[in-house]
Amino acid sequence: MMLIDSHSHLEMPEFRRDLKEVIQRAKASGVEYIFTVGTEKEDWNRALEIAHSHPSVYAILGVHPHNAREIDEETYSTLRKLCTDDKVRAYGEIGLDFYRNRSPRDVQIERFREQIQLAKELGLPIVVHDREAHKETLEILKSERAEEDGGIIHCFSGDYEMAKECIEMGFYISIPGTITFKNAGGFQEIIERLPLQSLLIETDAPFLAPVPFRGKRNEPSYVRYTAQKVAEIKNVSFEKVAEVTTENALRVYRLK
Ligand SMILES: [Zn+2]
Ligand SMILES: [Zn+2]
Question: What pTM value is reported for the model?
């Protein structure tokens, strides 16, 4: 039995004190690989450093929509260099966050388009962050022909129709720990209807810890609670969810 945490943030300060133990606990819980996402300049080198010091960790680099307004020419030349590293398996997370709006919307949209093009140039799949911007996200993915290199809609929060359209474009839908929450009925119904072959599981640690750790710091070992909930919802075994989501992650991150 093997699990993969397809999206976490191990370089964040929340893990500075006990990173080694966190990675060990993940391994002991069957989490064979962890993908850590460096979302801004200060985090890229740290993400790479962690990936290079731990065989089970891989990196994903890009500029989060929150930080879109900080992007300049140097940002892209730095990313171009760092992303040639073999430990970097995807470009992201990129996209739109119209909930927090930490960067102006028009800037987010422009930088999202540019980063899809950069990912294509690098030949990397993309990791998409979409919060309350479903329509715009889908439009941009289509108009930039993002399906050519594919990728993942991480922490999916859209409706069934959106999930279906993304899957038809060849994207994977990644499920966070929120699926275990009491009020996640609508989300659970969507997941019930989607094919396991298009699903990944993630923690987004240190955020969004699943039940029974809701409200606490999240960590990659907890991805098993998400797998367990997906198994319940889809009425298949835990082992089946582990097996198929692992295959999916290895495929999209091209480790197989
Ligand atoms: Zn995100
Ligand atoms: Zn994230």
Answer: 0.97
- Do 213 and 240 touch, CB atoms closer than 8 A? no
The rounded Å distance from CA 209 to ligand 2 centre is 13
Report CA 23 to chain centroid distance, whole Å: 18
Residue 166, classed as helix, strand or coil, is helix
The rounded Å distance from CA 251 to ligand 1 centre is: 21
CA of 99 from ligand 1 middle (Å) equals: 12
pLDDT in tens, 8-62: 999 999 999 999 999 999 999 999 999 999 999 999 999 999 999 999 999 999 9
Q: What are phi and psi of 250, to 5 degrees?
A: -65, -35
Inter-residue contact 112 to 147 (CB < 8 Å): no
Q: Each residue of 74-103: pLDDT tens digit?
A: 999 999 999 999 999 999 999 999 999 999
Centre of ligand 1 from the C-alpha of residue 134, in Å: 13
- Ligand 2 centroid vs 194 CA: distance in angstroms? 22
